[in-house]
Every structure is written in C-alpha cells, then in structure tokens.
Write a structure and sequence with these properties.
- The chain is an all-alpha fold.
- The chain has one domain (2-136).
- Helices cover 75% and strands 0% of the residues.
- It has helices spanning 2-32, 39-63, 79-107, 112-136.
- The chain starts with a helix and ends in a 10-residue tail after the last helix.
- Bound molecules: protoporphyrin IX containing FE (2 copies).
Length: 146
C-alpha cells in the first residue's frame, strides 16, 4: 500500500509538472499576444486542476503512512523528518491552492486577456514553489524512484 502510493505520488509529479508547463506557455502566449481563450485553454487548465487534486489526495493518504512523517521531539531537529512532516506539505499545499485559485477565479472572468493573465501568473508561482520544494527534498527533481 505504502510503496504503491509513493510510486503513484512520485510518478504523478511529472504529469503535474508537464501540464503546469503547458498551461504556463499557452496562457503566457495568449496573454501577451492577446489571443482568444479557446476550448483547449479551458481543457488544459481543467486537466491540470484534476491531476493536482489527485496528487494532493495521494499525498494526504501517504502522509499517514510514511515512515518519514513523525511527530516526536526529534522531528524539528532532524532535517529529513522536518522536511517530510512539515515543509513538503505546507509548501505543496500553497502550490495546490494557487493552482486551484487560478482555475476557479479565471473561470469567472469575462475578458480573455485577463483569464490568460490570471492562469499564467498564478501557475508560474505554483511551478516555482513545486520545483524548489522537490529540490529541497534532496531526492532530485527528476528522480526515477517510481
Ligand atoms: C503538487 C503537489 C505535490 C507534489 C508535486 C509532490 C511531490 C512529491 C515528490 C516528488 C515526492 C518524493 C517521491 C519519491 O521519493 O519518489 C513526494 C513525497 C511525499 N509527499 Fe508529496 N507532493 C505534492 C503534494 C503533497 C501533499 C499535499 C502532501 C501531504 C498532504 C504530500 C505528502 C507527501 C509524503 C508523505 C511523501 C512521502 C515521503 C516518503 O515516505 O518518502 N505531498 N511528494
Ligand atoms: C480532499 C481532496 C480535495 C479537495 C479538498 C478539493 C477541493 C476543491 C476545490 C476547493 C475546488 C474549487 C472549486 C471552485 O471552482 O471554486 C475543486 C474543484 C474541482 N476538483 Fe477538487 N478537491 C479534492 C479532490 C479532488 C479529486 C480527487 C478530483 C479528481 C478526481 C478533483 C477534481 C476536481 C474538479 C474536476 C473540480 C472542478 C473543476 C472546474 O470545472 O473548475 N478534486 N476541488
């Protein structure tokens, strides 16, 4: 169970990162080039939201099974335990919230340029938070532990 969840959570990161990049590139071009907001833009941001929410759910279940998540007097003094118990969750949660807000607020906007801009900026912030957080985990951003 634990291994399966870890591998799924590990593997899904690549799909989240690829979709994030796709949404960022597409919406930045749309924003700066003043292009219409198309069905593809809508689909891409929906897929990104769904995979991000699944990733969040997998992480949540994993949190209660991982040997690296511990609540003891040593947790804060041990950088590995602190990272997996506190830092990873808090930072990733911020990224998940940014991706969700990007989608739900842009959906309600009327102007295409504003929708592109909202998706571009919020998802860029999420992308950098995720990259830095994975890097801080010390297992490599593109590790093959799948
Ligand atoms: C976009 C969001 C997230 C991304 C991209 C992400 C990415 C990752 C990566 C790359 C790993 C390392 C996997 C490996 O060693 O192969 C990992 C592990 C883990 N993540 Fe996340 N994560 C996200 C959100 C979350 C959330 C929200 C939680 C908790 C609520 C969480 C909890 C965990 C736990 C418990 C581990 C396992 C540590 C272990 O036992 O080795 N993650 N995550
Ligand atoms: C505990 C886990 C989850 C939480 C707390 C959560 C929370 C949310 C929130 C806050 C929204 C935004 C609503 C809005 O537009 O204002 C949302 C939308 C959505 N979530 Fe989740 N979610 C979770 C798990 C999932 C999972 C597992 C999936 C997919 C299998 C999923 C798919 C979606 C979809 C499709 C939308 C609406 C997309 C749209 O049309 O904009 N969520 N969720």
């Amino acid at each position: 169970m634990y291994q399966g969840l870890l591998h799924s959570h590990s593997g899904l990161r690549y799909i989240v990162l690829i979709l994030l990049l796709a949404v960022i590139v597409k919406s930045t071009i749309g924003w700066l080039g003043k292009k219409p907001f198309t069905g593809i833009d809508n689909k891409l941001s929906l897929w990104l939201l769904i995979t991000t929410h699944i990733q969040f759910l997998l992480g949540l279940v994993l949190y209660f099974q991982s040997p690296w998540v511990q609540f003891s007097g040593d947790t804060m003094g041990n950088s590995q335990l602190r990272y997996w118990t506190v830092e990873h969750v808090v930072a990733m949660l911020i990224a998940v919230v940014l991706i969700t807000i990007a989608r739900s607020t842009s959906k309600r906007m009327k102007e295409d340029e504003a929708r592109h801009k909202r998706l571009a900026i919020f998802n860029e912030m999420a992308f950098f938070i995720i990259l830095i957080t994975i890097w801080l985990g010390g297992r490599g951003i593109l590790s093959m532990n799948m």
